[in-house]
Structures are given as C-alpha cells and as structure tokens.
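Subject: mismatched residue count in predicted assembly?

I count 922 residues in my input, but I want to confirm that the predicted structure covers every chain. Input:
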Amino acid sequence: MTKRRMFLNAFSMNCVVHQSPGLWVRADDRMVDYKHLDVWVNLAKLLERGKFDALFLADVVGVYDVFRGSREAAARTATQLPVNDPMLLIPAMAHASEHLGFGFTSGILQYPPYSFARLISTLDFLTKGRIAWNIVTSYLESAGRAYGREGLPDHEERYEMADEYCEAVYKLWEASWADDAVVKDVERGIYANPARILDVTHDGRYYKVKGCHLTEPSPQRTPVLFQAGASPRGRAFAAKHAECAFFLGPTANVVGQYVADMRQLASASGRNPDDILSFAYMKIVTGGTEQEARRKYDDYFAQVNYDSAMALMSGWSGLDFGQLDPDMKIEYVETNAMRTMLYGFAKADPSHEWTVRDVANFAGIGGAGPVLVGSTEQIADQLEDWIDAGLDGFNIAYNITPGSFQDFIDGVVPVLQQRGRVQKDYGEGATLREKLYGPGRSRIARPHPAAEIHAATWSRP
Amino acid sequence: MTKRRMFLNAFSMNCVVHQSPGLWVRADDRMVDYKHLDVWVNLAKLLERGKFDALFLADVVGVYDVFRGSREAAARTATQLPVNDPMLLIPAMAHASEHLGFGFTSGILQYPPYSFARLISTLDFLTKGRIAWNIVTSYLESAGRAYGREGLPDHEERYEMADEYCEAVYKLWEASWADDAVVKDVERGIYANPARILDVTHDGRYYKVKGCHLTEPSPQRTPVLFQAGASPRGRAFAAKHAECAFFLGPTANVVGQYVADMRQLASASGRNPDDILSFAYMKIVTGGTEQEARRKYDDYFAQVNYDSAMALMSGWSGLDFGQLDPDMKIEYVETNAMRTMLYGFAKADPSHEWTVRDVANFAGIGGAGPVLVGSTEQIADQLEDWIDAGLDGFNIAYNITPGSFQDFIDGVVPVLQQRGRVQKDYGEGATLREKLYGPGRSRIARPHPAAEIHAATWSRP
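Triage response: the counts match. Full output below for your records.
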C-alpha cells in the first residue's frame, strides 16, 4: 500500500512575534525585519526548496488587550502588535517563486465583499492560481470597535455573518463571468462577450451587493478555502465551507478524533469527507541528535516571555490570566472557539492536572499547540504517527525564523521524502487546488456551496 | 536662473484598456497580459531607467454603463472592465526597483478606514517610503450599488464623506504611535513603549473608528496624497488635502490658469501653495522625426474603437453619448467633475466648435486629455512650455504599453536631461515625499490637516 504523502504549510504572520513569545530578541530570529520584503522573498524561496505546499499567513485585526485588562503587555513585547497586512506580502513572494501556494487570513469585518472578491481574484491571477483564503470571524472585541461597532457581534451571529459573506463572494467568483465570457478576438476587436457576464445580486441581512464582478475568471475562481473553527458552530461552518481545516491538539489521537468528527459533520452536510483536508498546528525543534534538539528547546524555553505568552492566551480565550493564581488548576469550560481548544489541551492530556503556570509555559514555547522535539528521524516518526491518525498535513509554526524552517527542511524533509511522505518535486504549472486534489481540479468541486452556485448559474438555458 | 525640473509620473491601470480605446488588439501593446506580474515588474524597471518619479495607477470600482444605458460596449471592448486591483501590483514592483514611487487610486467606498490605513502603512514599509494615495470619491452609480447602496451619494455628500474618511485615516497614521514609541530594546525584551501608543477615536457621521493603529510609524506615515478633483467642490477638497494635484486641459495656458486658481485656493485655506505640486495629464507620440511621430499617431488613430471611447466619455460625464447626434455641437454645462473637465476642453479651445464626433475622436486617441505629437526635440519644447505655464510635472498616459513609455524614455528624456529639466540620477534612499520636496521632508508638512493632527497630538504634555 502506498503511503499517503503529507501536506506541509509554513505558518507565519506579518509581525515581530507570531507564536514565539520573547524569542524576537535572539540574533538568529529575523522577524524584527518583518517590514522588509527580502525577509519574505527569502522565506518563500526556502520553503520552495523544501517542497512545502504553501505559506499560510495568520492575521488579526485588533489587539491582545484581555491580559491585565490592557494592551500594555502585548505592545511592550510586540505580541502580534504591530501587525502589518499579510496579503501585501504575497505578490513579491509570488514573483520570486513558481510553485509555493499562499494562504492568508482575512476577517469578515475587514473588507466589503465586493472589494474582497476582487482582491482575491487579482491575487489568484498574480500567483497563477496559488492563492488560498483563511476565513475568520474575529475573536477580539477591539476588532469590533476598530470597525465602528460597540464590540464584536456574538459568536453565533459572527458565523451567520460569515456564512453570508461567503455566499456574497462565492457569487462574485462563480456566478458573474461565464467560463467562455472572455473571447479575445483580436480581428474583430472583441475582448469579451457581454451576454456572458451577469450581474450578481446579494440582498442579505448583513451584506448587500449588486453588480458584475470586476475580474474575469481567475485560474481557481474561488480560492482554496482554509478554516479553523473549533467551537461546535465553528466546526459546522468548516464542514460546510472548508477545503483545508486546521486543528489544534496535543496528541495525534486527540486530533485524529477531531478529524473523524469533522469527516462525519462533512458527510452529514452532504459533502465528500475526502474533500476536506485536515492540518494540525505543530512546532518542531530538531537537530542532528535528540540531545542537540533538546538543547535547542531548552535554549528557546529559557527565553520565553511570560507576559507575552499570557497576552496571547488571554486574548485567545477571552479570560484574563493576569487575574488568576499561577498555581490554580485549569478546568474545562466550553465558551468560545479558542477557549475550547486551549482547555481541550488540559482536558485531553490525562498525565497531570494543568495549572495556569503550565498553560503559560505551554503557550510560551508552543504558541497555540504542541512542540515536537527530537532528531530528524524521531520527528519523521512522530509526523508519520500523526498522519496515520487521520491527518493530511501540518501547519508548521516556528520558534525562530528562518532557523526553525531551515532545520526542518535540511533535516526532516529529506527523511520524509525518503519515506515517500513528502513530495520530491512539484507538478508543473499546477494550481494550488490541483496540488491538493490532483490534476484537473483547479476549480472547487460540487457539492461545495461555491461550486453549486456556479453549476446553478451556468446550467440555465 | 536654474530651470525647474519637471516631475514625471507614468499613468496606467490594472486592465486591458485604460485610456487607449481599441489599441489592445495591436501586437505591440502588451496590456492583454495585464494579469502577469512580469508586465508590471518590467514596466517598473523601464520607468526607473527613465528616471520617472512614480508610476500612478488609476482605478475604478464600478462599470462604464452609461453609454447606451448598459455596460455592453465597455465589456465587449475591455474598456476598464475587467479591472483588477492596482494595489496588489506594487509589492512585486517595489521589490524589483529602488527609487520609483508608486501611487494608486482607492475610493472611499472600497475599504473601511481602519483596514485602509493599515494597507497604506504596510505598503509604505514594503516600498521603503515610496507610496502615494490618489483619493477618489467615485463617479459611477454602479459603484454605489456594488457596495449595497441605491446608487452613489450625491456629489457634495461624497466630498463630505471623503473629508471624514481622510480625517479618520490621518488620525491612525499620525496620532496613534509616537515617533519614539518603538524602542527595540533587545536586552530588556521591550519592543515598544505602550505609553506612547494611543487609541484613536473617530466618531463621525459616516465613519467610526476606535483603537490604536496596528502598524508602527512608517517612513512617510501619511502617504503622499494625490487628488484630481475638478469641480469647485473637488478643487476645494484638493486645496485642503492634495500634495500632488492633477489637471486635465487642452493647452498649457488653460491648465496654467487651473494651477493659478488652485494656488489661490490653497492660500485661502491657509496652506503654502508651493506644497501642492501640479501635474497635467498628457499623452505623447514621438519618433526620430516629426513625420515618424505623425505616422505613428495616424496609425494609432486608425485603430481607435469608437464605442470604447464613447463608453469612457459617457461614464466620465454621466451623459449617454449614444443618445446624441454625432454632428450635434457640444455646449458647456457644469454638472459634475468629469463633465466640467471634458466640456472645459470644448469651451477652452476657441479654434472651432466641437461636435459629439470631435469629442469621440478626441477621447479615442487622447483619453481624458491632450496628445502631443512630434520629434523628441519638439516634445521637449512643448513640455517646457507647459512647465513654464506653472506646471510641476506630468502624468504620462500611453497609447501602447510599454512602447509609448519606451519611445519617451529613449527619445525625450535624454533631451530633457540635457536641458536640466529631468533628473539624471535619483537621490539615494529618499522617500517619495523627499524626492518631491527635498531631503528631510519624509513626513507631511504643517499646516496640512494630517500634519496638524500629528502636531496637536504629540505636543500635549
């Protein structure tokens, strides 16, 4: 039986500290130069050398101001603040690469659907079909205020808004220009057939759009869709919309269960579970030997900034960890998406009871997820275990950039290639969706709602 | 007396047909490849070789559907439809260039102020201070519908909205992070001083923002501000906000008068008239001899697409030229900005009465403005006349890309350099604003409203 290959995304963010609190002060972490395009272009080239499938850029609009009730700690420690726009890094990286995919996060408060649909279509052209969108609904109250609201709409309503936002942009991507609309008839001076360009109408509760899409059909039309919802409502949303679903969990078995649940949800909502690829968040610390990897880990751990970690954890969970006794035991309380994930860790690991301090240490070195530490062979073994538990791939976060990616690419990737788990070459000229699903699959497949909109529009007489 | 140097912007758009209706069918026009980054990266390199100051990217959200009451002609002839996002071209061009500035058009309906302010700040970093924003209020009803309105707000209200939009983004750029907010103290693990990062509050009629800017202070903070308002309200807006004002007019004397009026308006609103640089829209057809240039012009003229030109003209003016007798005489009626400009031509040129057909021919070969035709020396003479009439520079549009720019750069630029009218070298490491105003002027100067916001915020005890 052929082993399933694993998909590899690098996980980063256009800021100084993504999920490695405190480590920006190291001379070998170059994220203090996040404002320079060279840092990103070099990263894209490195990832392409390592045969990564995509670079996935996180984003957040709003600030981590839950810890001690202010953004003081986040600002002091550069914890996702400042945070520059991720989308604007992509064109320069796309021009310097041929195969790497680019996913970026954009929330439903950030851009009106009409503008956002054009941004994506333009990027899909500029990357030659290598673009993905990570759909988020925001979790920071400060984001709501930044966009003129009293705060965020509640959790359920945000997902209703996201459903509607998706519907509006799907229409623009799929239901405005027919596949044969552009004719480029130089002899007759006809670029497009106007009869094959339709107005889109979306008259919803949260969004209204009327007009044709401004962009002709791009290689993928609808971008590859990423989603990371972890609450029940979020999982339902992912089951409906996601092509790549992201999971956070401490062990292969725990995440394997999440994946099994997602596949069931997908089936229940009428989709083919194989159309949803499952990725686990992961940090990896590796070296020539286990000892060398352990030394690196200890070195990183010693530089973790506690306040920075607590700013992240408090922002994600909505709970002010600054008010809690470090020795207090953590109990599982399901309230919102991130809280579920984080407390899920405490619940899932039966080896000991977790305290607030444990969570701080955990988040400090791992960010929102687990850290694998070991020799290149040991890491390869563990990643295979995760894949065998039902995963399709990983979002690999870093402790330092580009060092963590370099270690992985120079050390672990060759081992995984040897084992038939990582691709040795990219397919020629393939779109990102083709890389994930195979040749001829550039467009999103039915019965995904975007594909259904396409089918319903163009099958009409 | 030293001659004043002239500033040169290239004027283009992320689409097949910007202002050269019909010419996309030529084998030597590469705008059919507008979706490929190489076209843009090569253009940026060419312009930098020609010592241009900036590439200025037009944009429109909405379609040209006034002509014959539909977008049929525009879609058929690729007249600014499809039109991809301009901003996303800039990072790739910035990475491939060192000195060229990049201005792009963004309307107040397109992005919420909080998102837009971050996009600009990010671009200002990625270009190392070479970014400019062309502020527009939209003139197509279809743009309003695309953003969930019944149509556009009326002309006066759009400018009120634009005033407020500017105020909101100025606050984010100038009044959130102090110049000394970022300390990057590696020893103490302190990236920024939280006490020097303020929340911005904008609680206006049209826009509401509350929160700190997500981006640390970029090289220019407020981007270089472009504006092209031509109506009385538009001119007043430009006098208040613009650093570079754009004009359309048939002759040096006519535009010289516009410039004089703008300088008066600027003085009246308390600004230094020298802080507003005036650019004229211009097309140039040149060759080794006048005859060669004429032949090129006739060649282009023969390929003009009438419907495409009328789609543009009808969209700009809001008048359906498809309803008018081609032999009807044009009379001057001041209604909106573009109408004023276009009819201004007919009014300003006393040599003959203009008919609808004249306007079509004019727009077909010139787009929204005049065409200079001649040998390199003749063109240089004419451009000097324009500068001597009070202009500071030109927005040079093309008939074909990159050919029109190539002809100008290889033929006219050396002549103008010889005459001390075009820079022979760029200053090292200067921001765009320094290139325009001189060393040390990276930040916008008082009493511009953005600079006043900065001063009022940071002079507080």
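Residues 155-174 of chain A form the longest helix (20 residues). Marking this ticket as 'not a bug'.
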